Amino acid sequence: MNLKLELQTLNDKLDKFRRKLAAAEARGDAAIVLQFKKEVATVTKRIASIKGQQTRQFSQEGTALKALGFKRTLTKAEQADMGKLNKSVKGLVVVHPLTALGREMGIKEVTGFAPAKF
């Protein structure tokens, strides 16, 4: 299972446990409240772990892209015809600033990374 999907399922479980915890607190059921507090704590810990794994993964990808020989921002015309650009440049990787990888790398504009000048 990939990290994004696992993170989504854990967030769903956390939401479900929090709702059940609130219902148990409203009923005044101490044993169930204690059980769901433990469940919430374990799921929260696992979510933090997964987010750390994602950060490391994006950091490694960013380092690999920065190691490529050439990078430059893409013009609006190049962005409009990405198919033509990808065909003309071998090994081109385009990073958008609003993606997780783009935010991790600190990119402000759409940037292309390639092993050779383009």
TrEMBL record:
Domain of life of the source: Bacteria
InterPro entries: DUF2810
Protein name (database record): YibL family ribosome-associated protein
The organism of origin for this protein: Shewanella vesiculosa
